[in-house]
Amino acid sequence: MVRYMRLALVVAILGVLSSPLKAQELKLWYNQPAQNWTDALPLGNGRLGAMVFGGVAQEHIQFNEETLWTGEPRDYNQPDAAKYLPEIRSLLFAGKQAEAEKLAAEHFMGTKSSEGKRAGWFKDMRALKGLVGNPAATAFNDSKWKTIQLPAPSGWETVGLEGVDGAVWLRNSFILPAKWAGKNLVFDLGKIRDQDFTYVNGVLVGSMEGSTEGRKYVISADKLKPGLNHIAIQVLNYFDKGGLVGYKDTSRALMVYPEDGTEKDAVKLSKSWKYLIQNEDPPLVGAFQASYQPFGDLLLNFPASKVSGYKRELDLNTAIAKTSYISNGITYTREYFVSKPDQCIVIRLSANKKNSISFQAGLRSPHKNSIVKVIDTTSIGLSVQVKHGALRGESILKIRAIRGKATVIGDKINVNHADEVFLYLTAATNFKNYKDVSGDPIALSKADMAKLLKRNYSTIKEAHTKEYQSYFKKLTVNFGTSEYATLPTNERIAHFSKGNDPAFAALYMQYGRYLLISCSRPGTGPANLQGIWNDLLTPPWGSKYTTNINLEMNYWPAESLNLSALHEPLFTMMEELSKTEAETAKKYYNAPGWVLHHNTDIWRGTAPINASNHGIWVSGAAWLTKHVWEHYNFTQDTTFLRNRAYPLMKEVALFFNSYLVKDPATGYLVSGPTNSPEQGGLVMGTAMDHQIIRDLYEACIKASEILNVDPALRVIMKEKYARLTPNKIGRFGQLQEWTVDLDDTTNKHRHVSHLWGVYPGSDITWDKSPEMMKAAKQSLIYRGDEGTGWSLAWKINFWSRFKEGDHAWKMVNMLISPAETGGGSYVNLFDAHPPFQIDGNFGAAAGIAEMLVQSHSGYIDLLPALPSALEQGEIDGICTRGGFELNMKWSKGKLSSLDVLSKAGKECILKYAGKEVRFPTSKGNTYTLNAELQLMN
Ligand code: FUC
After folding, report:
1. Does ligand 1 have an atom closer than 6 angstroms to the CB of 356?
2. Which residues on adjacent β-strands are paired with residue 661?
3. What are the counts of helices (DSSP H) followed by strands (DSSP E) for the chain?
4. What number does the ligand 1 atom closest to the CA of 751 have?
5. Strand partners, 683
6. What is the pLDDT of residues 805-845, one digit of tens each?
7. 34-77 pLDDT, tens per residue?
8. Ligand 1 centroid vs 556 CA: distance in angstroms?
9. Distance of alpha carbon 188 from its chain centroid, rounded?
10. Cβ atoms 189, 244 nearer than 8 A
11. Are 505 and 478 spatial neighbours (Cβ–Cβ below 8 Å)?
12. CA distance linking residue 804 with residue 865, whole number of Å
């Protein structure tokens, strides 16, 4: 009987297997070339990144090399910060937050890079140095000036003044409506970066310094004329974005309207302005940390022609992008990829008719200090030097034309009537490590080129595909297909939240994996705020590494989505940080071990930055160590635990052993001075810190037991663990964000740090503490669903842990919707903060996995938060803690089959629909279970 039943079950399972879900193509594709950078398709090998626009008359490939940053190696620490620590703490305990923040601002922030002297330059600019005539004057002739479109919300860098810091004049005019005669007018010029001197009809009418205040100047009627009135603005921009940036609400115009009227009566000034650069060399501005830089652009200009059948795509299965179109009856195809084995950006141009390929290739860079040079008869090079920085880069472009001819003319390469063309681009910098910039970029770039030129295109392509697929193929996911799967990606994004395209969520998940492979390979640096892709000299938040959510979120999918090896760059960075951080621990807290505040950069800066109300946050290192511990949990690799994870964890535990202090009000240990990221200013004691520290102690105690080391330290950690401030439920039924019940239930801020214990932590679970879980959920309900890209992604994970799949799905829908003013997705599916920030891509991919499998509570929970929209599907290769890899299928919302591969031979505990099964496993064996969780082998 039992045998018969087994047989029937096997037949049933085979039945399911024999009617597989139809899979969609794993491609992003479009019917038109990229207009904006966030339409372009990203490629990368962890070190070199490329954004492919796919233009017909002009192909544009913007590229990056991951080590090109501003700045130089330097000490970021304030030498005697620790002297002020006791006073800051006692002020905070005494409720004197403002005084504590002031003292900390003066003595506790990190040091900035060197500053220039402003006074002399300022005087020269105001005295019109370098100009002929006075542009403020009404009669000034600006007919030879160029034009610029204003406002430019992302800075004038994005509308034609890339790389310009300094003094720029802007001129415009408007006709005074007759009915405004005799009225005072309001000039609303939005925010200006950084300082303006605004003239109307030659008279200075307003001036302000500071980039956060909008300019609204009231001009008295006597300064105005009937008819034409002239406006001239001298803008002094010292660093970062420049110009008239308008308002956060980008639909708001620059305008002028009567003082007694409203904006409805306004004459718009949002239009073309004339401009002249007076000077581009302002005095240096000190920066707490460095910014990631673009390297250059490869441009291919083709003869103009009419085309049909245009398509561009990115194939996630091969990490190869393609553009194709028909022109004059000839089908042209471009193929692009970035090879890790051959360390280069590769492009192949082909046509289905011989002698048909002609174009001109050139290089350029947004860096002012850059030149294009001839290397040999078929190669040119690009040298860039970062302004005021220690880093420089060298790139080489080599063209191989099959038949036809490639020749260098001027600083460009011309190709005429070729059958097929191969372009190879290498790039390198002088960065060796965070202390050493003595590298030889030209030698490196040349060596890469020499090596690859010994191989042919198909060998290079094959090696690339094989290496890429060694990561990508480890997991497949299929949520079925739908009619929408045939739509171009931009249309699918627009349609997704309207329903019926669950397959797109599978594509989004795989795209997250694709992006991680492309920007974080073993041996490269970790993924920064934009992964590896950046086209701006002043990118948002420096495109650096923010550690109060963003850097960690980048690596959330690494273990569960079977990309464990890609975690490596983060671990190497942590080992470097643990060295620079040791200095910070000593100089700021007089403590052993290491501590990381809320940001770091390529130079491994670790001291607090920005402002004392949010820059002094102490849990960065502790949070990062969760990643080494999770790597161990997923892989069960005790050698890794002994040699890499535990030493890092132990040093952070040693820091907290010394740093935690007793809260006089409660007797518990608290962290502080610190903050709950970007909420409530500098305080003693935040729920987030305590959850992270508790997690660290728990992990460190377990690790020391597994490794059988440090028994004395274990005793101390256990004692500290027991005395740490516990999670608390506040008066609104919410999980308290601080030790004191200060939560504001109307606060809709994107940061939800006090829920750290729900995800990525496991301090709060339905099993361990249902009341606290309810309170955490209540806090999230108060905070609301809206948020930036990463905030939406975090909320997918929270709702999955709350086991509310449909709410989690709602968050997926909000994230996969066209990026407008809030979080969403750009045309190329990059996550929109906005602007672009890659963390949301990774956080959401991890969040979808969390709907399917969870393993943070000591067992594997199958389909714990399956949304009704994903009622059928299959995933092969999803990983869990304990060293298991699952192949799982479900249909009609119910598990239908499961294979468990045991990679470490640990006991397997599975839970599904109220059932629990446990069985011993042997390493390397696969266990098959049926829908009832019965073992079939
Ligand atoms: C913090 C966040 C922002 C952004 C930035 C990189 O300041 O509050 O939303 O993610 O880091």
Report:
1. no
2. 670
3. 20, 44
4. 8
5. 674
6. 999 999 999 999 999 878 999 999 999 999 999 999 999 99
7. 999 999 999 999 999 999 999 999 999 999 999 999 999 999 99
8. 17
9. 33
10. yes
11. no
12. 5
